[in-house]
Every structure is written in structure tokens, then in C-alpha cells.
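Two records follow; treat each independently.
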Amino acid sequence: MIQPPNAPDPRVDACAGYAVLDLGVYPDLDRVCRVMAGALGVEHVAVVLATARRCWVPAAAGWTPRDLGQRAAEQLSKAPRSPAAWAGARLPAFDALFGDGHWGAAATTPLTTPGGVQIGLLLAASAAPRVDWDRSAAQLHDGAALIMQVLEARAASVQLDRGRQERERLAGRLHQATLTARTFQAIADLTALPLDEDDSLRGAAQLTAELISADWAGVQFRPGGTPESVWPEQDGRPGPPLPTSGVPVLDAAAGWTFPDGEPGALACVDVPGRAARLAFARRGMDARWSSSDRQVLRDLTWALRHLLSFAAQASALRGLEEQLQFALRNLPMILWVTDARGALAVAEGSGLTQLGLRREQVLGRSLDDVLGGTLNVTALRAELGVGQERRQEVTLAGRVYDTHRVRLPDGGGTLGVAFDVTELVESRAQARRAQRHAETLLDLTQVMALSGSLPEVTLQALEVLLPALPHSWMVLWFREGPLLRPLVSCGEQPEAIAQWQRRGVPLTDAFAQRLLAGAAVQLNPPDLPERLRNEGLHGALLMPVRAGETLMVLGAYRREPLAWSPVERDLLSVAARVVQVSLERRDTLAELRSAAVTDSLTGLGNRRAFEADLRAALARGPVTLVTLDVDGLKQVNDTQGHARGDELLRSVARALGNLLGPDEGAYRVGGDEFCLLLRGLPGRALPDLDAALLSVKADGFAQAGASAGSASAPLDGQDPEALWQLADERMYLEKARRRQVR
């Protein structure tokens, strides 16, 4: 039923998570459709997705993906929720798929997310009016499961892309913070020089030009005047003319050019309190200013205001002290000066309050005395040459400070400044953690696409995950009777614990019962027996892994008493998903391989299996090939129906199966044609066959019989086709002889 206009549609959210809302062609889904078409023996297979307002085909074999519109969505909403088939009757929802509408039979099975949301159907159709859909229902269902596995893998990839974008966003913020810090540091360096206002502006323009990688920079000291070049030529030559009005930042597309006619990007910054401007330019048709550049220029306005204030009061100690006190009160920093004996003569800044200290408490005391209990101050005590600067990061009271020290002249003490950079350091650490997390998820996703045995794939996944779980080892457990036993181990573990794990864990264990119920288990040190803690086990995180009837458990174990973080639990959950996908893929491939070589009616090998086994048997040694043609099948079909005829074929198959010994096989290679591969020469083949077929008559097929022929290798040759043809000829001679007798 179509939902009201404003009603939420969970199918839209599910399709958005799988990134299949657009009408694109998805090669991974197309490949599955082609495989399913071959397996089912039909001309057309399609993935049909539907929401409340739209129905579309993103992948198909035989058809071209297309949009079917809202009408098809309305009709599909009325389709059965279980596998269904139509033959002869019309299904209007799919008329748009077939062009002129000629189709004989179709079958569908729903596509359902792990959360139970049906997002569409897997459709198979044939031009033939009769298709035995009951025999193909399991394959159609398995195909739908494989489609959902591909979509789940796409969802995991989309989530990984979001993590990468978040990492790039954090890196951008860190880069912007670094640029801002460099701007303030460069302008602060100018204030320590004996410069007048004009020289300060020239220096600020030069430093900023280097910071933003400008091709040219200059200073316009009066409105309408010619700017003075300061970068890269520092000889005061005239620079290019500047606009008298307009926006302060222009990219190359705005039409501004250098005197030689080359287009460029221009940016101007007004000097606060003066009729002057700083100008910066880049050359080229594509020159532009990034958002980071614009932020630096905005910061420059603020910095220029303080630079000129400091320069104007350079000769006035009181003014400089006022400005310094302003910074100390409002910025998270500490300023200190020690005398020649190492005692603190000056200690200022709001950072003292963060450390729980007062100015009066520390004056006259040494750094060892003040900070010795919270910091190893050996590095801070290191001798400095006159004018030499030492910079390092230190941690005090949980805060990180970037410290700068310089030796004062004339045998004096040292001057030191410490800036609180805790937020910057934390943002860097967060970016590194996000990067490591994203890289581990990416590596796990790549392992999910690998082929190989379950232990091989699992070991690769655990080797990827182990570095992200410090002081840990990992084990994949499998169910063996009443025990859980280790299948794959990775990481260093205490020998006593390894022996205990090799003995297996009884399923009667309380934690094992929770895992059997599908719940994850987290064990902290208090949850573990004291004996295990003494032997080196301090924590466990266990994830159940179930695929069909197979139960496994992925466990991570700690050698140190560390808590499990949400990120670690998330990574282990992804690793469990990798193991589950490997299990499901193994089961699916086994079923597909079995279906490819098995006759679905009788359960015997099909023609493909017969041809492969015949070649293998010829390579091993003497073999007898028996061909068999069932007599009376057409009569049973005509008089008793095809269902009874199928039962005759199954009865013959059972009889032939009873003939087989080790390394022998029975096959249905056609409608009523069977073949046997028997070891050795044909001495017992035909007598045993005649006796075995008596059971067919006992099943109620008194008029049924069989004609058989045989050929042996190496007696009759070694060529498979010639051997088969010879057995057929002898079988037809036997059939003709039986007709003459009757």
C-alpha cells in the first residue's frame, strides 16, 4: 500500500544506506544476476527495488536497468511477501520490463534487509510458458540472500567513506588551527623588534606573504597611492595599482591584472586605525584564495591592530607592560623570569590559576621547588647560551603547554613563556585515532573480499585487528559436540591460558549460554576467576558468529587490566562480521557447486558431473561405462501423469544407487537416460543391473523395463566420447532385441 505523503518510508533509508537510490548500473549486482540466470536456466533476472513513490531496476541480466515509476511501486506493494510464481497470467507491475509484453512465466522472491525491511524483489522470467519454479525456489532464495550480502558490503563501504570524510574534516580543522597559530607567532615576533609603525607593516606583509605563499605583497601607505613592494623584492619598488574601492578579496576571474597584463588574484587588508592597506597577489588565470587563506587574512586584521599598538608604545615600558598584562590575563599562558640563581623573579599569567598556584606562592622559589612534584624539570634546567631559545612540550596538572625559554644577557637568568595547547594536542591525537580506526576498518573490509579457507581469511582479519587491541590476543572458537574449541589463534598469550583454551569450554558455561543466545559477552577482571587472573587473563570480549546452523565465537583477551573501549568493541564487531561473511560465502559456494553437478529430480550426478568423473576414472585405471535407457516412461507419463513418471525415474535412480561400490557413480544424463561408472571389467555389471531393476517393478511399475549397453576401458579404448558412443550403440542394439522378443 502506498504511504501518505509525509509518512516515513524505511525502504528509502535502507536504499540510501546501500547507496542504490540512483538509477546507476552496479557491476557487482549485474554479475550476480548473470550467474542466477545461468543457474536457473532463464533468459531474464532482475533486481527490482521499490519505495512508496518509486520502483526501479538497478541491475539485470537480459534487461536494461530502468525506472518503472510510482505505478509499478503501487503494484509491487501488493505482491506476496514470500517466493511466488506466475505462469500465463499477467503481472502488470512488470509489463514495463518486457517491452511488447511477451513473456511466459515469472517468479519472485523478496529482498529483505537484516533489519526486516523488504526493499524489493529478485525477479526471474522466461519466455517459455512452463518453468518448474518449485525446483528452483531454493536457488532463487539463495540468489536473493547473495544480493543482500553484496548490498551489505556496499553499506560497509559507504560507512567507511563517511569515516574518511570525518578524518579529512578533522585534519582540515587542525590545519586551520596551525595556520592561525603561525600567524599569531609571526606577528608576535615582530613586536620584539625595534621597528616603527611603517617597518612593522612591511614586516607583517612579508611574513603573511610567506605564510600564504603569495607571489607578491606590498603596503599602500595612503589612499590612492602606489603600493610599495615588500615581497619578493624588498627594495621598495612600486607595485601594481590597487582598486580604489570594491571587495577586499578578488580571485583571478574578477578581471584584475598585473602591470604586464597577466591576470591574478588580489587580496587587501585594511590597517586598523590608519588609512593604509596591506596587499597580496597571486599570478595566473586560475589563481584564487582558499578558505584557509581568507581566514589568515581575517586573523591578520586582528594581529595588525595589536602589532601597531605595541610598536607605538615600544619606548613606553608602561604601555608595553599593560599590553603584556592584558595577554597574560586573557590568554591561557604563563610568563616567568628566573634570576642567575634560578629563583623565580617574575611569574604571571592565567595559566598559574589552572595549576592551582598564586603569584605570591612561587616568587623567590626555584622551578624544582615549584614543579618538582608534578614534572621532571631536568630539561627546563638545561643551560642555555645567550640568546639561545629552547622549546618543548610539557604536561602540568593534566594540561599540555608549549614552552619557550631564552637566556637573558649579562649573565642573568632565563625568560620563559608557556602557552596552553591542550585542545590543539587533543585534536591532533583525535585525528590520529580516527585515522588508525578508519585504516583498520578499510583493511578489514578488504579482507572480507578475499577468497580462501575460513581459517586463512580469519587469520588475516585477526592479524589486521590485533595492533588496534593493545596487550591482547584473539581466538576464533568453533562448536564441537558439547564444547567450544579454538580454531584460529593470533597474538601472544600466557602458556597456562593457552593450555586451558586448548581443552575447550563446555557449552554449559553461563557465558557460553549467553553466546548461544546470540548475545555478546564482555568480561572485566571482577568477572573472571582469580585463578585465571593469576595466570595472566584480565579481560575478555566475545562476539557470537552464526551462519545458518554454524555457530562460532570470536574472542579478544587482555593480558593487562585495561578496559575495553567503544572503538575496540566496534572493531571486533566488524571482524566478527568478516568471519560471518566468510562462513556464509563458503556455504553458498558449496551449495552452488553441489547444484551445478546434481540432477535435481533424482539426486544423482548430472551430465556435467558424469563427463568430469568419466575423465577422472579413465586416468585412474580400468573402468566400465554402462548406459541405460528406461523403457515405458512415455506410457507412464501418458496414462498416469508426469508426476508418476518422475517417481519412475526416482525409483530407477534408487535401484542404480544400490549397485554402487566405493569410487563408483550413477548419473542421469538425459530425460530417461542414465549412466553408471563401475570399477574394473564388466563381468558383473549387466547381471547386477537386471537384478537391481526388479525393485522398480516392486515399486508399482510392472510394465517398466530398461535397455542397457556397456563399454570398458582400456579394453574398448580410452577416448571418453568414443567409449560413451560404443556403450550407446550396444544399448540400442539391446533395445531393438527386446522389441523383437516382444
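The next record belongs to a different protein.
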Amino acid sequence: MALWGGRFKEKASVQFKKFNDSLPVDYRMAVQDIVGSIAWAQAIHEVGVLNDDELTRLTAALNELKVSVEENPKQILLSDAEDIHSWVEIQLIEKTGDLGKKLHTGRSRNDQVATDLKLWCKETGGDLLFALVNLQQAMMNLAEREKDTVLPGYTHLQRAQPVTFGHWCLAYVEMFNRDIGRLKDALYRLDVSPLGSGALAGTAYPIDRNALANRLGFRTATMNSLDAVSDRDHVIELLASASISMMHLSRFAEDLVFYNSGEGGFVEMSDLVSSGSSLMPQKKNPDACELIRGKAGRVFGSLTGMLTTMKALALAYNKDMQEDKEGLFDALDTWQECMEMAVLVADGLKVNRSRTLAAAQQGYANATELADYLVSKNIPFREAHHIVGEVVLAAIAEGCPLEDLTIAQLQTFSTQIEADVYQHLSIESTLDKREVLGGTSRSQVEKAMANIQSGNEEILNEQVAGAPGIQQTEIALKQVKQRLNAQRAAAMSVRRARMSDVNKIHQLVNVQADKGEILPRSLDNIIHDIQNFVVAELEGDVVGCASLYIYQTGLAEIRSVVVEDVAKSQGQGEALVQYLLEFAYQMELKQIIVLTYIPAYFTKLGFHLIDKNSLAENIIEDSEPSPHKDPADEVAMEYIVGQGK
């Protein structure tokens, strides 16, 4: 059944119907179409198109259909409906008769498909954020395991300077972190509702489009109906985000294919992600990495195809836009599958530490250290560079590393070279000198891992960015961890509060205040402090909140941490606190305190007990004791931003 037959004398040909129909692709948006239809039914009820009974019947039928689709989405493919919108309407008419025909009043398939696709993108984007965070965590785990492992670093695929394997891992953590930022930016921009834009000129019914948008979980409604129905920027942005991330994954895969080769022998892939040869029984092929590398081109193709489709389309909607979904669905599925496969690869990777160390000791990777040594003897770097080049030539002729040349041999190139030179030419010395932020020393990698977790402000201010070292790798590992916690919180739908959240926050806080768990907050107080609140959402509903109260430069208190019972086992409370800790880091705060009756909860998040009497009087005065609790049970705890656990 088509929704547009009245204008035509003849039926479309079977060949055209097959060419035109999109149901085999857009059936994946069935739930989104039903959710949008429920919201639209409420909207046209509010303007008098539907009465109360009609709204109840339509909503019940749509909810029943939604449950059926969630249980068996493939049932849709048995239909000969043109698209998912037709299928939903046909099912609704079968359930409610002529009443089902009223639902499309004031609505077009143009704004309907635009809304469905944005709802699908929002939901899928959340899954992709989780996959990216999990991938970062897998690389963090690998960096932790191999933070002391020496690895030859390369430029031009030639051995250059030694780094640590942990430092290599953290390079990809940084790439994936940028991927998270791009994805979040794209999801923010697409979070506007086109519903109510009609075919191109808006609807003739006085729909409150912002209320409709909020009902669907969008932050607002679109501002121009022509743009709303013909905008596919969100598709292009998501494809671009996927393409850049797949480029990063492909580089990761290529590195490991090279490291895994017989010529490299630095790593061995797990059997779980490898295959063999049908002819050569000795072969163990890194197929997972090769497929990740190969699938990158497939995702790039979807982006190129969509850009080409959109480049010459006049306003407003054109049927060309039906080509948006197949490439998008395939690209995002591929991206997520490759991220999940990369996690398996990282989890099972075995590093041959003796082989990586031996390789790092070859190729005169310590030549730069000899040049730096000469600079310390007041020889200009350019001259030192030339001298070391001659030394390397001599070592190649002798067939030995630099450190095996005798003092007499070295002094033929410069009399400034003395016996202390050898302590500068060891692998340990080469690595440990890379103490700057971003360097490859073991301690710096450790610190980096913690500070991405806790945002170590002191290290960020004191270090100079840029170089690779074993101490710097430790710094990097510490830095990564807080950032991952904050990203995980964002992926769990924790966000900054808006004015539209005020009433819900007031309700959440005062329900707990009535139980004596926290202090009450007035509505006016919440309104004036809304910029310091964050909220947690579950399926579009606000289920938790928390706030950061700033006392003075460097000091703040986390207050009003509340999570509804339905969300308490899903990590929303922890996510709220982690989000605020990252917010505190961005605000350049140094000390975060809590006054709590449940210290064990905050201990898990990196807080430590402190003497309550050490707090300033105004802090104690602000914290009135609960009439339902023993004041002696309330303890003070602190979190030093940048240190965490």
C-alpha cells in the first residue's frame, strides 16, 4: 500500500517499486518512527485534532506495535510496504481502523524521516561513544602492562629513537580521544528536532515545536523548515567522524601487522584474532588487523558517496536523500565492529620484550644522545650533529654500535668526548631523559595514564609539551585515567543541567532531603545555581543530579548527589561525580571536598578522609546537620584534582 495513490491513474511498475522502496534499509528505524508517532499524536491532541479517547487508543496501539517490533524487527521485511513510515501507518490502521488515518495530519514523510534518522543517530551515537571509551580503556590496559617495555620508534619506517611500548599505546589513546570529541560535537549539532516542519514549509497546525522536541529528547527544534527537511549534515558529520576514526584504527592495525611480521617479531597476535593458511601449515596471519585496515576504505567510500549525493541538491527535499541511510548504517556498523575487534586484538596481544629491546639497541638510535652530550660540552648543535654523523659512519664500518667504540676511537672525532660518555649512550639513559610532558620515559608514561584520569594540573603546568620518554609514559598513563572516567560519564548521558531541568532537580533533591540524606534546596536556589549542576539521563529522563559549589579559588564542594532508585545499579551516581571532577579540573580547581554519611562510596572514587575540624567555618556553617542523622557520623573527605586514587 502506498500513501500517495490518489493522484495516479495507474499503479507503479513492479520494477519501479523495487527500485523506489526503501523498507529493506529503513526498517531499522521502526522504533524511532513509532516513538516519533507517539509524540506527534500528543502534539496534534494538544491542538484539538485528536480527542482524549483517540489519543489513548492511538498511543496504546503504537506502544503495542513498538513492543512487537523490539521483539522481532525482521517481521517488517515480510511486508511490501514502501518504507518504514508506510509500514507503521498500515499496522496502525489495522489495529485502530480509520482512526489510524488521522495520525498523519499536519505531518509529512519529509519531516518524519528526518526526525526518525536523527533519533536513530542519537541512540547509535551513544553506543559508538561507549565503544570508543572501551577502546581507549583497552589501550590503557595494554599501556599499563607494557609501560616498561622498550620499543624502537620509527620515522620513514627507519629506526629512529627508542620509546616505550606504553608510549606507543598512549599515542592511539590520544587519537581515539579526538575521535570522541568529534563524535560528541556531531551529536550535539544533530540534537535538534525537524518534526513539525512539514514537507518543506512547516505545518499549518499551531504545534508547540519546542515542547514536541523536548518530548522526543531533543534539546530544541530546528529554526527553518526548508533546511530541516533537507539537512543531512549530521549524516555527513557522523560519516566523517567514522572515517577519521577508521583512519586511526587502520594505522593501529598497520603498526601491528608490521610488528607481528617475521621481520619484526615484536608482537604475537592472540589465536582469537588470527587465522591460518589452507596450504602452509606454519602460517598465523594477522587477519583481524588486515580486515580493520581494509574496512577503512569501505567507510571512506560511504562518506564520499554521501558528499557526492548532496553536492548539487536544490532545496528542499529530493528523493536522492533516500540514499543517506544505507551507507550510514553500514559505515557506523563497520566502525563499531572494528572498534570491538581492536579491543580483542589489544587484550590478547603478547609483546616479545627481548626482541623489541634488541631492535631498539640497533640502528644507532642513541646517536641523538651523543649529539646532546657534545652540546653539553659547549659544542654548537649543528657541529655536534656533523661530528656524530661521522662517528656513525665509523661504527657502521666497524660493524658495531656506538657504545662499543673505544674512547680513543671516539676522541679522533672530538677531543671533548670523555669516559663519562658511555652513561649517556645506554637505552635507559636515552629513555629516561625524555621527561617532558608527552615524553616516553617510564615515569612519565605512568603519570600520563593517571592524569588523563585525574587531570594533573601541576604536571601540565610544569612540563613542556612535545617529546617522546619511561618516566613520561607513567605520567601520561595517569593523565589518561580521569579523562576516561569523564568520557565514560558523558557516554552514560551525564550532561550539564539546563533551565528546563530545574523542576526535576528540585524534586530529586527534596525527596532525598525529606529522608534526611542530604540538605534541602529551594527552587530559587537551584535556579540561581543551575550552571553548577549536572544531571544524568536514562532513556531521555533525568534520573540523577549533583552540583559543584565553589567556595574560593581552588576549593569547591560536591553537593546534592541524588540518583533515583531505578538508576542506582547502573553507575549513574559515580558518573555524576566523575563528570564534576573533570569539570573541576577544567575550572582549574585544586581541592574538592564532600561532607557525607557514606564515606565508602566516595573512597571508591578517589576521595580521602580529612579532619572535619580542618575545614573553614563558613563550610561547616553551610552544612547544617541532618535532623535524621547522628552528626558524629558525618565525615569530611577531599579529592586533590590531578591525583585521584
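Discussion point: Residues 137 and 484 are 7 Å apart (CA to CA). How would you locate this feature using only the C-alpha cell line?
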